[in-house]
Design goal:
The protein is of the alpha+beta class. The chain has 4 helices and 3 strands, in the order ααβββαα. It has a 3-stranded antiparallel β-sheet, covered by helices on one side. The radius of gyration is 18 Å and the shape is globular. It starts with a helix and ends in a 10-residue tail after the last helix.
Length: 122
């Protein structure tokens, strides 16, 4: 924090701030989603994290949906060790109980195979 913002923040301050916002995060995570999103973007960003004395890679997965009325909504954010199709399938499974974002498919394969002719994967 000092290098970037010029301020010192203790680990106890970070813990206090985290404890204060955790209820808001839990509320956001359990909010109801739209029944369907006609446009869904899946993306991940990779970064390095210090774990104990080692530097390891992590991936932050994000899913953005655009509703029928054109409203953008972050549907969720996940953190994993690295980007993989297996992790993405888990993300899609996480979204399915609360909405029909991906439908009842177990993967995006039916979309890429042309079963849903109006779907596009970039």
């Amino acid at each position: 924090m000092r290098d970037i913002y010029g301020i010192d923040v203790s680990s106890s301050m970070v813990s206090k701030i985290t404890d204060k916002i955790l209820p808001t995060i839990a509320e956001w995570q359990s909010r109801p989603l739209e029944r369907a999103y006609p446009i869904v973007y899946l993306d991940a960003i990779h970064f390095k994290v210090r774990k104990d004395i080692r530097i390891i890679n992590k991936a932050a997965y994000s899913v953005l949906g655009i509703s029928m009325s054109g409203i953008k909504d972050i549907l969720g954010i996940w953190v994993g060790e690295s980007e993989s199709s297996r992790f993405w399938l888990g993300v899609c499974d996480d979204l399915n109980p609360s909405s029909t974002v991906i439908g009842k498919q177990k993967s995006l394969e039916p979309v890429s195979n042309g079963e849903f002719q109006d779907s596009v994967i970039f």
